[in-house]
Every structure is written in C-alpha cells, then in structure tokens.
Request: fold
Amino acid sequence: MFKKVYVIIVTYNGARWIDKNILSLLDSDYPVSIIAVDNKSTDTSLALLQKYPEVEIIQSEVNLGFGKANNIGMQRALDLGADYLFLLNQDTWVFSGTVRSLIEASEANPYFGIVSPLHFMADGHTFDANFETYFSKQKQTGISGVVSVPFVNAAAWMLSRDCVHKVGYFEPLFGHYGEDRNYCDRVLYHNFQIVIAIGGRICHDRVIIRNFTKDVTQSKYKILATLLNINHSFAKSYLLGLKEVLGLPKYFSKFYSTGKAFSLFVNLAGYYTTQVFKMGQIIAARNNAK
Reply:
C-alpha cells in the first residue's frame, strides 16, 4: 500500500526550473501530491505552476523566506493526512525511482527522521560540492544502502509525520539561511537520525559562487543556529557562538582580503552582542524546541 507523500516546493522567481521540477515529480514511479508555496514571485513562476492541475498552489502576499513558507506547506500537508513530507527545492529535479527509494529507507527504521537522496549537480554525475562535504561524514546505520550524517542541507528532505509532530516546524527566527541546520540539531535532540538513501538521486541545478554579503548573512545565521542548539547547554551555546565570531572571519580570510575579513568580524561581533541582549528570545525558542 502506498504511503501518502506530499511534496512541498517553495517557489520564488524560479521560472527556469518549474517545468523540469514538476514534470520529474509527475514522472515518479511512486505517487505523490504536490503543494507549491509561492513567495510572491515577480516572474512567470505562478503562470507556469498553474499549467499543472496536479499542483495545489498557495500564494503568499509577501516573501516569507524558505523556512516560514515551508511551514505553511507542511501544515497543509499534515492537515491533508500526509504520511511523509518531501521538502524539495525549486532548482532541483528527481529521477523516477527517487521517491520510492526515500520511502523504502524511511520505512526501514521509524527513527530515520530526515531521509535525503544523493545530490548531484545539473549534469547528473558530479556531486554537488556542499553535499559532498556532508556526505563525507557518513556513518553506517546497519541498513544496506542507508548511511547517517550529522547534517544535510534541505534541498531534498523526506520527513516522517512522526518526526514533524515531535520536532515541529522551522524556527521563524531564521530568514533564508541556517533554518535547516537548526532543524537538524533539533531532529538529533529528539533521537531521530539524519540519513542518506544511496538509491535516491536528485539534481541540484546551482553554481556556488562566493558573495560577501551572502557570506555575512549566512555567518550570522550560523551563529544563531549555534545559540539555539539544544544539544548544548545555554552557556556552552553562547560560548561556541562567541568562538564563531572569531573563527568564521578566519575561515573566510582565504576567500577575501584582510579588510573584508575584518569587516566580517565587526558585523558578527555586533550581531553576537545583539543576541546577548535578546537572551529572553533565545531561551524561549530553545524551550519551544524541546
């Protein structure tokens, strides 16, 4: 008997990927329902989505970012009785057997909270560079074709209904980065595993290019994820966050000039100081995650 799988896609000005993304899902050998949450696109994304009667479209009046838009789709899927929620980036496409592989892996162990496929670049043969880093930290699970990792980015997550009920939704304090790291931390805290199903594949059509403004934003949210990590005590989380204020500029110094690295340090020091004065908000978010 097929499980009820709802695919949730957050779209924002993703017209160049829509057809390939949706058509790949419609070609899946495992049946899926599709929910697209559009973050007020200004291109033809909505018009393209509306070509497919199989897709339920939820239109946001503002750009909510990745996490909060996914939360809307996740809630809708659960209300419709989903057994599994498949969060899928707009700039990806799946292969015919991908969903089946993820469901088979998920069904093998109820503590597999997040099951991700292998992530390839658009050529379908080369690992996505960031995914390769995450995949290199694999450990055996005891189940053939499934390995565990401490983190995998949320380009393609199969989430069990039980996992979402216990872990909850994405933390709304995040904008567009860091929410997946925070969610993985919470998944591990609730004794679920994050795993890769070797038999599943997606193509992630992106090119990773260094951008200073983006790196500043990602670094801030990396610190926020550390402060919210309930696998550590409150005091330890703030200590680790302070270490990142120093460590992240050092890491990025190999990509940027000394001046930009110092600018990053100043930005992160200011951000960390702000979070010190927002301890009440941090404590509340940490408590809600438990």
Notes: The longest helix spans residues 234-252.
